[in-house]
Amino acid sequence: MFKRFYDLAKPGIVYGNIITTLAAFLFASRWHIDPLLLVMTVMGLALVIASACVFNNYIDRVIDGKMERTRGRALVVGSISNRAALVYATCLGIIGFCLMIFEVNVLAACIAGVGFIFYVILYSYTKRAGHWGTLVGSVSGAVPILVGYTAFTDRVDATGLLLFLILVVWQMPHFYAIALNRLADYRAAKIPVLPIEKGLKITKMNIVIYIVLFLLSVASLAIVAHTGYVFLLVVGAASIWWLIYGFRGFTVVDDSKWARQVFFLSLITLLIFSIMLSISPFLP
User: Fold this and answer.
1) What burial letters (b/e) apply to 56-74, b meaning 16+ CB within 10 Å?
2) pLDDT for residue 124 is more than 90
3) Can you give the residue ranges of every domain in the chain?
4) Which of 122, 150, 171, 191 has minimal Cβ neighbours within 10 Å of its Cβ?
5) Domain at 1-142, CATH class
């Protein structure tokens, strides 16, 4: 039973977002860490994200049943009741937001709240309306890095906004790669992702464009936040590697295999970015 509730909170999404949160916190603090503040930030935000994921599972339970990838989820097969899921999500959210408000700061809690609303309400419904729902979803996915930054600084400045922008543009090719790889699932669930509405060529062009925007955003961060040339060289090299694979999409035969490669490289690039951001205070 514990595992079913654990999986309902989409732990992969929670852990992935906490990596960027932690990186931004370490970068903002320059490793002058308040251990309690760091723990409360991670715990509070993790619970808020988990709450949002459980609510999203509840909202998506019907379309999840139409997709091969998600038809085994607890709310689809009935191993967890809808009522239990809603109580679970509510408790996670209350505890998480209380930790953020009383143990971190109100600004970080408010930003987390914006991400929560975007994911649970706006993204859950706009993705059914058109391919632009992906952009709405990218806002919620970019919130954790800004929360990590503001948890320490208690302000939103140019650096924090650039971190947010970097995660927005990173998510677009990441999501488009998922859409291409799981195209049959999205067709079955009648979710109008970009490759369904605009076709494969337009999707591939968007992937390349957003990777270029990611690279430019990283370069801007290096200038504005003085992250150093080592940060720029390493993250820039990873981004170019990702971009090269993006361009290969125009010549490949197996689009699904290529999309999986782009997806994998998006994760590698984000991990490298997060590591280099967190250690940039020590780099030239």
Assistant:
1) bbbbbbebbbbbeebeebb
2) no
3) 1-142, 157-284
4) 122
5) mainly alpha
